[in-house]
Amino acid sequence: MIRYVLKRLLSLIATLVVASVVIFVAIEVVPGDPASYMLGLNAAPDTVQALRDELGLNASKVTRYVNWVSGMLSGDFGTSYTYRTPVSEMITERIGISGPLAIYALLLSTLIAFPAGIIAATRRGSVADVSIMGATQLGVAIPNFWFAMLLVLFFSIQLRWFSAGGFPGWDQGLLAGLKALTLPAVALALPQASILARVMRSSLLDTLGEDFIRTARAKGLTTRQTLWRHALRNALIPVLTIIGLQFSFLLAGAIIIENVFFLPGLGRLIFQAISQRDLIVVESVVMLLVFAVVLVTFLVDVAYAVVDPRLRAR
Amino acid sequence: MSLRKLIVPLLLAAASVTHAAKTDLVLGMQLEPPNLDPTGGAAAAIDEVVYANVFEGLTRFASDGSVQPALAKSWEISDDGLVYTFTLNAGVKFHDGSDFDAQDVKFSLDRARAETSTNAQKQLFAGIASVEVTDPQTVVITLSQPNGALLFNLAWGDAIMLSPDSFDKAKTEPVGTGPFVFSKWVQGDRIEITRNPDYWGEPAKLDKATFKFISEPTAAFAALMAGDVDAFPVFPAPENLPQFEADPGFQVVVGSTEGETILSTNNKQPPFDNKLVRQALAHAIDRKSIIDGAMFGYGTPIGTHFAPHNPAYVDLTANSMYDPEKAKALLKEAGFADGFSTTLKLPPPSYARRGGEIIAAQLREVGITTEISNLEWAQWLEQVFRGKDFGLTIVSHTEPMDIGIYAKPDYYFQYDNPELQSLIADLEGITDPDARTESLQKAQQIISDDYVNGYLFQLAKTGVANADIVGLWENSPTQANDLTAVYWK
Question: Which of B189, B212, B243, B479 has the highest number of chain A CBs within 10 A, making it the mutation to test binding with A?
């Protein structure tokens, strides 16, 4: 078990080192000078030069890479070119929205998908199964930004139950924050829940056909007992993989939903920073997301080992 | 006490609450300012939040574009036009409680024009030789040569007054002298300002204003419809305007801006170094279909680089009327009977992207093939503006009174005409308004006759607001949302 975890950990570190180089090079190669972007059309060349000096853009690329990485290791992500505030502060503030939103959406999608998948699998071919499968088909097909707009039209403009977007801040109370995240979380959760329900159903169906299930039934367990004690636990492995992937996706991939609901999350931060050529912010946020994805993958790998003892031996 | 006795006063109280005029306002903006210091960046969004609200200069723009006294109560100009003596308003305080006086003026102007200054509009201060303090209420600006535009230049957001004690915080916690005090910035979401109770002038009518940042046009629409946002002074989705016009709950405000939108032409790159080719280009463009197709009908056609609402404007659109046959004939005369191909580089705004497609189709009609490439602003600045690597591009020049760019031969469209250069140079020394107007009109005529660029239209300011809001700027003489006179009916 320890060797398995150590091996995973090593591959995690290697991935991060490679990613940092790729991110830095990719962003440096793209044309566009942050200083001239900030100063606009009328700025004199010496003004631009003065700003470049101030931002430390005139140092060599290697120096800047080393400064960036060593800074990150000590928790210092540098200072944003455009906002002139520490990047780590900006990221913390944005994660305070993207993180809860991702968790909220994931909870919703799991809460919908698990029962739906289990019902569909255990009552295969029934009306319930057919309608659940039909609904998930629809859920996968509907683009989430379009679904988001429908939610806004109905719940914000028509009923005025929720505001059309924005985030009041957690200092306005937990309830106000959760309320603001509800529509975005629903919009994000729908396609995820559909995928998850389908995976849950097929994985459970596979497991239910296994020999050990027949054995369990033969030794006198009820259908329900078999399901809870044996089938579900074994069916969870592919579901866990999908949940892991979905969480990374929700954290980084909510850019469009964050734009539709004008939420000040990580996705919008990257979006703004790219167009403003705020290189240091782009680099640090992308690096952080890579870290999050790699970490989630690592945790899922460890979770496999917990769920499936066969993996620990490897 | 019966239930009715309890409920009736409650209902009455509730009714009176809903009838009392609101004193707070939520304003939508598409772009968030990168920081809040107008002296340290060119982003229009900075001025849209703080200009006239938080920060003030010696002079200021009024909504009609005229220059009015602000922190300077009055001024005297010496006969040779070189010495400006400003008398400052008494009793002005910065939001941190410190006094505003002549020392702060000297500090702010010296800082803006310093060698190491990162002021995006440093040229505004170019002619200033010295700034001297006579007494706390009097400051003397001496110029190296007469500059008729000094009072105008001092009204820009880039020339606002800062205190030496708080200037370094201006980017995140601005301290100004204005009628509103900065209170809170939730990055990515909103900025809040509150009324300054100790304001030296006419106090603001609103208690509080919030600027909310919504970049997505459909989200902007939803936010207005749902009542999350009270007004969107520059509404990003013109296609939705008819819907707001039909709704009695909203008012649609269409005003003018300082944005001359032009088909910018690289005057040094062949074949555009040939005036006949540029003339052909001008006649090949149908402004009306561009305004209708790209701007949903909002925008005023222009025939030169000047704002139509300015009293000195001359309508020269007839000089470059849509006439594809004439364009073909001119191309033939220039030796391009079979046409030619060139690049058309488009920055992100929809006037450029949508307008570019229409212009490309119109140019194809007369035999000019364009290779369109869409650029981000940073790339556009690098390739087009700095690198001058382009044939054609579309851009809106939003700085007020910027005809002077035609006198800079190394400006990105590279127009080099000594006659215009001396005209603009002389203009700086002219303080008499009539003589200025005459020179400005002559300059408009010259660039129109030379077909320097394709002159398309003046960008309109299309805003949407709740029908009960009064006092928002209709026009945009500078990029600002001056909230001093705004109130709810």
Answer: B189
| Both structure tokens of B111 | 């800082």
Predicted ipTM > 0.90: no
A184-193 residue pLDDT tens = 999 999 989 9
Kindly report, residue by residue over A167-180, the tens digit of the pLDDT: 888 888 899 999 99
Q: State yes or no: pLDDT of B370 exceeds 80.
A: yes
pLDDT of residue B16: 44
A301/chain B closest Cα distance in angstroms:
35
Contact at CB, B118 and A82, closer than 8 angstroms = no
**pTM of the model as a whole:** 0.82
Beta strands in B113-249 (DSSP E): 128-135, 138-143, 180-186, 190-195, 208-213, 231-232
Residue range(s) defining the domain that contains residue B404: 256-459
Query: What average pLDDT does the structure give for chain B?
Result: 90
Burial class of residue A11 in the structure, from the number of CB atoms within 10 Å of its CB (0-12 exposed, 13-18 middle, 19+ buried): middle
B67-73 own/partner pairs: CB under 8 Å, 24+ apart: B67/B151, B67/B152, B67/B155, B68/B155, B70/B155, B71/B100, B71/B105, B71/B161, B71/B177
CB A162 within 8 A of CB A197: no
Average pLDDT of the segment spanning B70-91:
93
Q: Are the CB atoms for B451 and B281 separated by under 8 Å?
A: yes
| Contact yes or no for A32 and B378 at CB 8 A | yes
Determine the Cα–Cα distance for residues B156 and B160; give it in Å rounded to an integer. 7
pLDDT digits (tens, 9 = 90+) for B141-150: 999 988 888 9
Q: Which residues of A touch B192 (CB under 8 A)?
A: none
Q: Which CATH number fits domain A87-143+182-313: 2.40.50.140, 2.60.40.1120, 1.10.3720.10, 3.40.50.2300?
A: 1.10.3720.10
- By C-alpha distance, the chain B residue nearest A52 is B118
Looking from the CA of A173 toward its CB, the CA atoms found within 13 Å total: 3
Chain B residues within 8 A of A93 when measuring between CB atoms: 187-188
The pLDDT, as a whole number, for residue A134 is 92
